Amino acid sequence: MAAQTAWQFKEGVAPDAGSFVPAPKDSGELQQIAGRSTTYWSDAIRRIRRNKLAVVGFWIIIALFVVAIVGPMVSPYSYEDQDLDNTFQSPTLRHPFGTDQLGRDQMTRVMYGSRISLAVGIVCAALNFLIGVTYGGISAYFGGRVDDIMMRIVDILYGIPTLIIVILLTVLFKDKGVNPLVNVFIAIGLTYWLPMARIVRGEILSLKEREFALAAKTIGAPNNRILFRHLIPNAMGPIIVTVTLEIPAAIFTEAFLSYIGLGVSAPVASWGVLASDGTEAIRSFPYLVLFPALAISLTMFAFNFLGDGLRDALDPRLRQ
Amino acid sequence: MRKALSLVLILVVVVSFFGGLSVVPSAKAVAQEVTYNLATEPATIDPALSQGIPEANIILQVFDGLTRIDNKNMPQPAIAKSWTISKDLKTYVFTLRDAYWTNGTPVTAYDFEYAWKRALTPELAAAYAYQLYYVYGGEAFNTSIKVGSKYYVQAVDAKGNPLTKKVGGKDVPVPDMAKEIDPSKNIGVRALNAKTLKVYLQSPTVYFLNLTAFPTLMPVCKAVVSKNDKWASDVTNFVTDGPFKVTQWSHNEKMVFVNNPTYWDKSKVKLTKITYYMVEDESTALSMFQSGQLDASATVPISELPKLVASGDAQILPYLGTYYYMFNVTKKPFNDVRVRKALTLAINRKGITQSITQGGQVPALAYVPYGIADALPGSDFRKASQVSFYKDNDIATAKALLAQAGYPNGKGFPAFTLLYNTSQAHKSIAEAIQQMWKKNLGITCTLKNEEWGVYLDDRTNLNYTVARAGWIGDYMDPNTFLDMFVTNGGNNGTGWSNKSYDALIAKAKATTDPKARMATLHAAEKILMTDMPILPIYYYTNTVLLKKSIKNFYQSTLGFVDWKNAYMG
Amino acid sequence: MLKFILQRVLSMILVVLIVASATFFMMRLLPSGPFSREKKLPAQIIKNLEARYHLDDPLWKQYVDYMKNLLRGDLGPSFKYTDRTVNNIINDGFPVSAALGVVAVILAVGIGIPLGIWGALKQNGWQDNLVMFVALLGVSVPNFIMAVLLMFIFALGLHLVPAAGWGSIKQIILPAFTLAGYPIAFLARLVRSSMLEVLRQEYITTARAKGLSERLVIFRHALRNILIPVVTVLGPLIAAVFTGSFVVEKIFAIPGLGRYYVTSINDRDYTTILGVTIFYSALLVFLNFMVDLTYAWLDPRIRYVERKVS
User: What GO terms fall under cellular component here (chain B) (predicted)?
Assistant: First the structure.
């Protein structure tokens, strides 16, 4: 097991690097010292179940999904039905979240909007995780010239104004019949992983010089195994924090994209769009921004609870 | 002793109390200072280069033109104390009064001649130079080609197409060396002496005296500007002749004006200081208004407007503009006038203005808005002939027209896209109209919002089916609304073309008799409203946040604010 | 090390040039140009304008000319603000944004890091839960709502500070907190999570076992090791905050540089787009360089020069 590997060299006598003969790279047996994967995952699931907050977070997320799918179906209103005689109604039993500037039922709109926002939040977090972690990990692990080039690419992507890229995307996607959400995923996927890549890189730069990593290397474990089984699990803390905190950021970015003209078109509105539209009327009709903002916060809390649980479960050093 | 002392004390208190009362003036003098939110950083304060309303709202405070627009939207003598107009309405002779620049030198006719010619110089590239195309030779000079220090007309080939040649990879217009334009001779503005300015127009222009109050036509101090091209970038060089002068310009933050002691009409100016802020966010401006940082603001958040109007903190002012949708008449099915008419009739404008825009807008049942004088004094173009060309929310007729066009109950009507530029107000209106068409006619459209530049580009290239648009008048005449729809007009945007419409607009331009001219314009509007390349929705209004202590505030129907006569009461 | 620094500086210059070039050509692909208006200008006037700003030259020539001027430090005239140059705009806006940015970064670091440490030390106690709850709230409330709420409460409600504007110390408070909101929360969570890991490591146990005081353990031994993710975040954060936030500057009416990152693109003000982009990206690569140097200082094991594996 990874943690053991670290322990062994910490407590035992560190091998003299000069006298050590590297094992053949393709030696499969020797890598097995990294542990059996079945145990690792079942162990993680066992421990996540014991974490109450994580379980609560998990069920909130399930509930959000159920509401997103079933809510608009059972609601007596549709997200687009207008009633110009009943605009800006405060919350009542008939309209628990009130009605908006066109007299539409805000609760139905929030429920319908969760379909977009949850999809955006989760897909973007996943993209962020996949691209950012891999990119940052590779950059740091190989270091030197590779790191310099990969990180300079990140700097370039940071530097080019996202707004220009997004406007060009709207022109590119126009009349192409692509699902508008896919456009959003592409736009967010293009630049959203940059902070993650930098954070992972910073962690791995330090971790790869630690004893357990050097040890894995000296016994001839292949690069991808060292990176993905030894180093990245040890950087899980900052990774999970970054992923969960970028979920609300992605939800609001979707609202910005929709402002530029990328994404689903009105009258469908995501949480982000509902919240930013509601902010314009915040003085007189604060409930219009309150409910979508609450929905975003709730999602965010749920993912954080689950994320913290995941972190504890996946971090090899926190295992008993 | 003690008693006596306390008596004295009481006396002192009583006397000082009454004495104090009598010292306090009966009406405390109000500081004649005002803070106003311009809402945006002006692009320039050089009158020749100015384009938008924010720039105009600075220039009109610090400059005085030949004329100045009064509170009834009529031009009044300003730097020109009088004028004569020739019978053919083409020659104007202005007599200037004794007026002075802020640097103490007199304002002369030479300054006007210089300023107008400067604005027309091709290399200055003033965006609003076309406001001077009314002056004889103005357009020719502005579009001429400079060779050395001289200007020439662009050469044309046998078919009359302008000639260009490739030089260093770019197309350069070829000058016709036989046709020189000499700005000192070939432009219809000349100072006969320091106090007399003669202006010769390209064609009779009945609203010319309104134009002489427009920012582009303001004089500039020749002695200063001819020596310093960047004179407007530094307020210390910014020599002006208006009621106020600029003392400070902190970019994106504020601009400070004080009353101008050299102004010819300074006795009328009561405000001693105006501070313009550039607060872009409407809600922030309202917060600053409520917390006393602002006395007035050019912007009011829509959602708060009804409350603010009711409390008297906001005012609704007339604004010369029309909010409309345009049809791409080159695209099926909108090439069919019955379809366009059906879509026009099937919307409930009253519902939109009362429930959504809520700013006192008037449902538009024609194109030219209220507020433009017709031929007879005191008359209104809108009321003079036909107030409306169709009924609002006329669903029955709309359905019948749609059926005639081959789409009974919307059956078989192709799906189309309604395009608008991103803004919450445009979105709400589009959502409402989308639903009205669906409910009333059974036709479906999808909404599409675009970033401003992308939207403009799509509009220009007819890359849309139905699109949101708006037009604010440039001057107080129906022509500013109507001449844009001539065939291939730069602002037509619909692909619509009608020969008799073009002829009427051309005829109105050449007509000097006011009655005949207005009749021609009425006829033109009728054609437009019969062919319906556009779908008028409402006539704009302007809203302003205004403290009740501000008196005599004036904002013209073109949106121009004038603080000259305002005061704090 | 000197060779590393030299190489790095060269690659930084290259990055800025690539960003400038990519932005130059991408922005010219945007529909509409600097002189597009809803009320269209006559074609001949647009020609005059294009001639004035040399937009009628072939694109490659415009690019070469721009790059030549850039090397001389001349960012050109603004197309939108006729009386101003882009150098002018940056000179006016950057000090304002940077002043606000300094305060925001100090708040973020000064509040975020201690909160995170505190949370970790009291792991799962009520203090920890409270800190993390507040931090999460800070992240899930976007800055445009946060700004409005702060303004309502502290300016309109309690009359403690002016609602908006620039010029006095009091006017920095609300925008600085709005700007710092997300970083405070992010740093607090990051520090807490790193701290928890560090506290479980052997050398901390060893240090404690040696009888060192808790304070010494935290500040001498633990803090250094949690700073790597913090420093990583701070690089881009400082670059972003110092060049100004569009939302915060708009809502609090602050005459900074942030607005131009959005308005210049909307206005298609080409020179301003390039100027502010180059400025930001130069600042960013410089700060990321500083971050890398700080890594090496924080963790001497980190080496940038490739090891020769024999």
Answer: ATP-binding cassette (ABC) transporter complex; outer membrane-bounded periplasmic space
